[in-house]
Every structure is written in structure tokens, then in C-alpha cells.
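Below: protein 1.
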Amino acid sequence: MKSIKKIVITGGPCAGKSTAMSWIRNAFSLRGYTVLFVPETATELITGGVAPWTCGTNADYQKCQVSLQKFKESVFEKAAATMDADKVLIVCDRGVLDNKAYMTQEEFDAVMRSLDTNEVAERDQYDAVFHMVTAAKGAVEAYTTANNDARKETPEEAAVLDDKLIASWTGHPHLR
């Protein structure tokens, strides 16, 4: 029987997500998994010109981002189901609930309603969530935004965002 697992790598800016995903690819490939990566949706949209500051409102942008995130994940799940592999690991560079950190609660609730879903359903669709702590907390000398054109946060803003991200995922039974 085929095993398909889906996990999220999250965390504040400059947290080491890319390094972690490289480690995951190597470690799980050695364990017999086919490892698939869903790219970060925000970076794709922002570098493509679709951003909170280019859309009508932040909520308008977030609806676009969450819709695309959900669509991409479903494509990866469908593809995984067709693969000639017993074990598939889908790794999401951020998940749907990451968006909550960039909105008010009212905006988030409206986005969930507009997509006919809810926070618990979106949270619990992942088998595990791994939160990487930003370098802005405790290693500020290593903090940089130079490796991602979509990121502009100061170390102080990154630390606040990191707290919001962990809060967004709190309640997941396999949050690490």
C-alpha cells in the first residue's frame, strides 16, 4: 500500500528552511522515499508582481495566495498518487496557515469562508509541521534578506513574524 505523507517547513525569515529541505531530501531519499517539494507560494507571487501592495487589499492578495497554495498542494498530491513509489513525502515550503501570520483574524476568517474551508481543516491536512526559528532571534548577525527578493523584514520585524507563525500553527498535533 502506497504511503503519502505531507509536511510543512515553516518559520520566520532567514530561519534555515532551504538548508532543512536539502537535509530532508537527502535523509528521506536514503530511507526509500520519493521526496517532492511544493515551492513557497508567496515568493512566486511577489516576484511575479502579485503582492499585498499591488492587489486591492491584503485580504484580496491573501485569497489569491491561499487559493494557489491549496491548488499546488492538490496537484502534488495527485501526482504522488500516480507515482511508482511505495513511499512519497511531500514537503511544503510553508503551508496554508502561514498566511494567517500576515493577516488580521477577521481577514483570515473571511479568506477561509471565501474558500469554503476552516482553520482546523487546513491545519490538520498536514502530517507534521516543522517550525524553524529565524536567525533574527539569537543570531541576528547571521540574519539576511539578501537570499530572497520577496523578503524585506528588519530583524525586529522578522522576530515578531516568527512568533506569529508559530502561533498560527499552535494546535497541530505534530508541531515541532
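Below: protein 2.
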Amino acid sequence: AEQLKKENLQSQLEGLKGQVNPHFLFNSLNSLSSLISEDPAKAEKFLDEMSKVYRYMLRTNEDGLTTLETELQFIQSYFHLLKTRYNDGLEMELKIDEKLLHYLIPPLTLQILVENAVKHNMILRDSPLVIQLMTTNSRKLVVTNNLQRKKRMVFSNKVGLNNIHNKYRLMKQEEIMIRDDGKEFSVVVPLIQP
């Protein structure tokens, strides 16, 4: 239990590090600054979603698990920030069975997976990066993105994926699965029955 608590704290810190780092903050504030003069209503929505993202990240990890529904609400706010920045170069598709919304998942799992997709792939208006979140009949969540690897390799210490893997291992749950067929990258995350 103590090790799981430590993993949860590490996840929260990694999530905050990924969000609060100067680059992310600069981009978010830059986007907000542009929107204020161009489209005040859109700027207000952006600021609202940005505050939801930070609020969720600061409040999560107290219990170690959250519902899929809560995590999806968070990722939609997080995606709104990304979409404002990348516009037509980024899309997200949801195919979620409503019967699984009360199932549990470690907090910030979706943020880590979406962030990885954005970090490692080119985001082009003519060829958008498409991130799909779907559930399966076997109570799993699958996060898939088309591969458009950046020409210049992005440094990755795989902390995010290892963090998710370690949480499931410590909870004695089924392992996550990672698939890369050269065209798509997928991570299969078991949903935990409440």
C-alpha cells in the first residue's frame, strides 16, 4: 500500500511536471493571449478548461483510483488545450461503452498516454494526429494513435508508461499491453471493477 501511494505521488508529480513546465505554461498563456483579442469567448472557454486541468491534477491521486467517467471528463479539458494550440492537426475520437464509466483507472493515465502521442508524433493540418479512446467487450480501455513519428527523435525515458505499468503491477491487476505495428501505436489498459 505504501509503495502504491508512492507511485501515485510520483504520477501526480510527473503529470504536474509535464503541465507546469515552462514550455507548456508559455504555450498555454501564449494561446490565451492571442485568443483574448481575437475571440474573447473562446479565450474564456480556454481559461476555464485550463483551470479544470490544473484543479484535477492537484486533487487526484488521493485514493489511488478514479472512475473512467471522471478521467474522461479531465482528458476532454486537457484535449481542449491541445486542440486550441494545434487546431486541425489534432483529433480525438471516443468510443466508450457507458456501462463501463463507473469502472476504475489510475488517475492521469489518459493524460500520460495522450501526451506521449503528441510528444512523439508530427501534428499536421493535412495529416492530423488522431487519438482514439475506446473500450472493449473485455473491459479494457484502448488508446490508439496513428504513427507520424517526428523525424528528429524525441528523448524518452519511458517514465509515463513505466509508471502506469507499475501501478497495475502493485495493485496486482492485469498488465497493460503496448502494441506498435508501424502504422498505429496502442496501449491497452485494463479497467478495474469497483
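The radius of gyration is 17 Å.
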